[in-house]
Write a structure and sequence with these properties.
The chain has no helices and 51 strands. With about 575 residues, the chain is mainly beta. The strands form 7 sheets. It has a 27-stranded mixed beta sheet that branches. A hairpin with a 5-residue loop joins strand 50 (about 560-565) and strand 51. The protein starts with about 60 loop residues before the first strand and ends with a strand.
């Protein structure tokens, strides 16, 4: 690792009746290890959170039509309002459609056993001709549309999504299981993994950080056709568009070859607006209570999980793998500066034990501010016990991104016990200006190609607690924003800190409780405003107190004062 300056650009098991899932809950990257810092996250196997069993199961409504075996619908079909169409629970069934499937009633896919496979496949899709946009069904935009009071009742056999132990009772012989990369400089190797094999791990400061092992196989499948690459001519990707007034149940399903692309105006290809693998479209409170659990989006051409202005949705133990464009995302709002609620605001969304892996952009050498998770505008949003790994892209791409378009009154997330590693650029990238009390608590970033945390834009009130940052190519932290009124970094174990240029004056930046394993590099230019940095209770990896020799000063404008535990202090010159 060598700290260098980087210029930044100014951007939801059950069987047929019920499920009982009891799994070890956990939040952090180190199976069976001690806490990564004295007050850091607890140890964990990376297993999905426990799901409580229902105390009673209401009877399912009788099906009006049962689809069984292999069936084809050349012009698509509609599930009428008030009706239930289902795939035969005890028979593996594949339904192929050459047109839209419109759900106004209930579409049910609930295989009775893991050996029964239910498939809805869209064929003959002309993705390059899709129009995109709109507030209802578009005839030529072939996909699954849920409208009116329609509902999806999709419950495959329970399958754990990912963990860090490499074993789970729900995993079966023949499943497509992968392991995330951990080698330095590797952001794209997701090798096949045999359960029970050795899980790769990285050691740091006496702790072990195991790679994520994830299962891509499900026995409910909704898919298009193609090869999963960017070129629309080589793919026939459909989509799922939900604009219903009712909550949805989508559990343990594989969504593959969805998310169409077309030729782009500025890039070789671009995603088709509103045609995503799983898109909740402006449902407002109608989506409350929706559960997306154990769902895999893979080999797809657009944003994987999109809760666009659709409130109260939980995404649990989900996987986005080999997809294009930011995986967990919803439409941005223009930053008009008025800080009023906006049409795209999404509230009460929860990402629990979610995974973004191998997220790409076309062309590969761009992808500025590409992310695994974009933390957009809304209220009471949560991302916990999640991981971003193998996020591609270029400048300012990151595992987790707090974007500038989310500046406003409603943009504070609960962010706890998350991991980012082996991404092309940063673990976290922040580019916001506000005085809100953002708290990032319990975060591990390692072997990313940029910084563990790159913090901008100009003036904000973020607070970081219990961070472990190591082996990141450019350094642990890049500091570019002043405090509003104060910025606090507490209990941080990092290999280095880079103090870069600052554009706006503001409150102090305070580092309290550092374990420093490399230098603090000061590289402010003559155009940088003068700020105040305070370094308190800091020690080196060997336990020594800081001295001026721990600083590499290339250009200094700010006042940097180090307060030592013995009562002395010094100012960096």
């Amino acid at each position: 690792m060598r700290p260098v300056r980087r210029d930044r650009l100014g951007r939801v098991a059950l069987g047929f009746l019920a499920v009982v899932w009891v799994a070890a809950a956990g939040c952090t990257p180190a199976p069976g290890s001690a806490s990564p810092s004295p007050s850091g996250p607890p140890p964990s196997s990376g297993a999905p959170p426990a799901t409580a069993a229902p105390t009673s199961v209401p009877p399912l409504p009788r099906a009006d039509r049962v689809l069984t075996g292999r069936q084809s619908f050349p012009a698509g079909f509609t599930v009428p309002a008030g009706q239930v169409w289902e795939w035969a629970p005890t028979v593996s069934t594949t339904v192929e459609s050459r047109g839209n499937v419109v759900v106004r009633g209930i579409l049910r896919m609930r295989p009775a056993t893991p050996d029964v496979v239910h498939t809805l496949r869209f064929v003959g899709v002309k993705e390059a001709a899709m129009v995109g946009g709109g507030m209802g069904v578009v005839r030529g935009d072939t996909g699954l549309w849920v409208v009116g009071a329609g509902q999806l009742d999709i419950v495959g056999s329970r399958k754990a999504g990912w963990n860090r132990t490499g074993v789970d009772p729900s995993w079966r012989a023949g499943d497509d299981i992968r392991v995330a990369p951990t080698r330095v400089g590797d952001s794209g190797t997701f090798a096949r993994f045999k359960p029970g094999g050795r899980v790769p791990a990285v050691s740091h400061a006496g702790r072990t950080y195991a790679a994520e092992v994830f299962n891509l196989t499900r026995n409910v499948r909704i898919e298009g056709t193609g090869n999963g690459e960017a070129n629309p001519a080589a793919n026939g990707r459909a989509h799922i568009w939900i604009g219903s007034s009712r909550p949805q149940t989508i559990r343990y399903a594989q969504l593959r070859y969805l998310g169409p692309r077309r030729r782009g105006a500025e890039q070789p290809t671009e995603g088709v607006l509103g045609r995503y693998p799983l898109h909740f479209h402006m449902m407002a409170d109608g989506s409350r209570g929706s559960l997306v659990e154990g769902v895999v989006v893979r080999d797809s051409g657009g944003h994987a999980f999109v809760p666009h202005s659709s409130h109260g949705i939980t995404f649990r133990d989900t996987i986005a793998y080999n997809t294009f464009d930011t995986a967990y995302w919803w439409d941005p709002d223009a930053d008009d500066g008025d800080h009023d609620p906006t049409p795209n605001e999404t509230n009460d969304v929860r990402y629990e034990h979610a995974m973004a892996a191998y997220v790409r952009f076309d062309p590969s050498f761009r992808g500025y501010r590409l992310a695994g998770f974009e933390l957009g505008i809304g209220t009471h949003m949560t991302v916990t016990d999640s991981v971003a790994v193998g996020i591609q892209g270029n400048s300012d791409a990151a595992g987790y991104h707090w974007p500038e378009h989310a500046n406003g009154d409603h943009n504070v997330w609960t962010f706890r016990n998350n991991v980012a590693h082996n991404n092309n650029r940063d673990g976290i990238f922040v580019w916001q200006n506000d005085g809100h009390a953002h708290l990032i608590k319990g975060f591990v970033a390692y072997r990313n190609g940029g910084f563990g945390v790159s913090h901008g834009a100009y003036n904000n009130g973020y607070r970081y607690e219990n961070l472990v940052l190591f082996g990141n190519h450019d350094g642990g932290i890049q500091s570019k924003a002043s405090g509003a009124p104060r910025q606090l970094w507490r209990n941080v174990d990092t290999d280095s800190i880079v103090i870069a240029d600052h554009v706006l004056a503001g409150g102090p930046i305070v580092f309290d409780g550092l374990t420093l394993r490399g230098p603090i590099v000061v590289e402010e230019s003559g155009d940088s405003v003068r700020l105040r940095y305070e370094v308190r209770n800091a020690r080196t990896a060997g336990g020594a107190q800081l001295t001026p020799a721990n600083f590499s000063v290339r250009d200094l404008r700010s006042t940097i004062v180090v307060y030592r535990s013995d009562g002395t202090s010094f100012q960096v010159r």
